[in-house]
Amino acid sequence: MLKHPLLCKAHGYWGGAFRPIDSPESFCVINPSTLDVLAKLPNLTGEHATEAIMSAREVLRTPPRFEHRVGWLTAIADVHLEQRESLASIIAQENGKPLREALQEVEYAAGFYRDAATRVAELEAKIVPGDPRGLRWQIHHRPAGVAGLITPWNFPLGMLAKKLAGALAAGCPSVVKPAEKTPLSAIALFTLLDRLGLPPGLCNLVFGDAAAIGKVMCTDPSVRVISFTGSTRVGQILAQQSAPHIKRLGLELGGNAPFVVFADADLDVAVEELMANKFRCAGQTCVCTNRVFVEKSLASTLVARISQRVAALRTGRQAGDACDVGPMIDGQAFDKVRALVADAIDRGARAVAGGLPDDQERQYYPPTVLYPVNNDMACCRQELFGPVIAVTEFESEEAVCAAANDTEYGLAAYVFSGDATRASRVASRLQFGHVGINTATGPTPEAPFGGMKHSGLGREGGLEGIMEYVELQTLPTRYDPGHSDSKRTS
Ligand code: ADP
């Protein structure tokens, strides 16, 4: 087991305590950079998820008061920053991302708790103006119920924060299920939550048999919200399983982000933004650019500039801790990227940087630029999820909007142009939930983020992210006993 003061109790957590379980089944957490086994953890089951849900349910007997929610959220944000180095080192070890990126992730996570704390006051009951029907209409924001939060491995604390902060602000107790590839960051966080003395059952943690735990979350009637970030395939399973139980689903699924560069764009800005966007977490994030569309007259210049930059990137294989690009999460992820690059090369693309590594290497994918690529190639149809830039040319605004939208996904997109009117016109035509204009930034805690089409349902961040965990309750009230409700019609 990775020796770390925040990982002394590597167990599930519910009812306000870590729960040592003697399970015959276990799974290993691997460091993708060294392939060392970091931990062997018990495989928790659906029964453990049920226990966690039962303890969460207890919290709802007396929904948490607003001032308590603000206090918890603020304390959790603070603890992230106080333990920044420790948490980042655990993220970097289990996910493989460079420490610099892991530190940014911890700050990003803290931002969600901090922002949610400032918004709790917006959940005060509202009164409908004008007393319709001679009644006072109050709108209350009630906690929706127990929240099941299922997170992926690419931002072990960032994705957890997006969900847990929204749930806590709304007053919902949660059962968290982190990805089995990266559960240690969540365990470390729960060690810190345990020290904060939160009410037992407010935050609970299970990991192990993902399918069984997911099924319990979908079918247990106390769980009213399921928030999931991960593959479209698993999102569909959760939607199907929960359909008979009419649950709220927040789904942040796959992406296929277009990065559109018009000839009048500021080339320096476009190149910088592409480099910053594409190689984070070795290209394994859902907002990473998947398809670069560049106007024909600028194509060879852009390709030359990015190829030069990409060829200079250092992977962890060459540069250890000082690397620019870490390893793929596992050999399977590596093989998938290799197959997409091989397919593009077979079908006429050139690898102007990087290319196909030899068969022995299954960790660090060489940063690669493919050009010219067309939108029908597998690397443009599927999510690349690796450090590969695929460049396609376009000739008109009409054509590039059609090509960018020609995907079942609709999460993030980016448009670069010196013409502000055109950039906003193109943004309005793109069927994506997040469209950067002359920026390729990802989400921020203060604003809602989420996808259209097969990229999902619901939003995370901002007040909208909290509302995913809120049930509106409307109270028409006869406030004056002497008052006759003459307008009542139903
Ligand atoms: P990836 O392919 O990127 O690992 P997944 O969608 O498989 O993405 O995983 C995202 C999260 O979903 C992880 O926490 C994983 O354990 C969980 N998961 C996988 N399968 C299921 C399932 N059948 N039900 C619920 N959660 C699942």
Strand fraction: 15-25%
- How confident overall, as mean pLDDT? 95
Low-confidence stretches: 485-490
Sheet with the most strands, sense and barrel status: 7 strands, mixed
In spatial order, strands of the major sheet run: 14-15-16-13-12-18-19
Strands, total number: 22
Discrete helix count: 16
The helix/strand class is alpha/beta
Q: State Rg.
A: 24 Å
Shape: globular
Please describe what this structure looks like.
With 490 residues, the protein is α/β, with parallel strands linked by helices. It is 38% helix and 21% strand. A seven-stranded mixed beta sheet has the order 14-15-16-13-12-18-19, sandwiched between helices. The chain has a six-stranded mixed beta sheet with strand order 9-8-7-10-11-21, with helices on both faces. β18 (412-416), α15 (420-429) and β19 form a beta-alpha-beta unit. α2 (66-82) runs antiparallel to α4. Mean pLDDT is 95; it is low at 485-490. Residues 150-152, 177, 179-180, 210-211, 214, 230-231, 234, 237 line the site of adenosine-5'-diphosphate.
Produce a short descriptive summary.
This protein is of the alpha/beta class.
Keywords:
single chain; 490 residues; alpha/beta; seven-stranded mixed sheet; globular; binds adenosine-5'-diphosphate
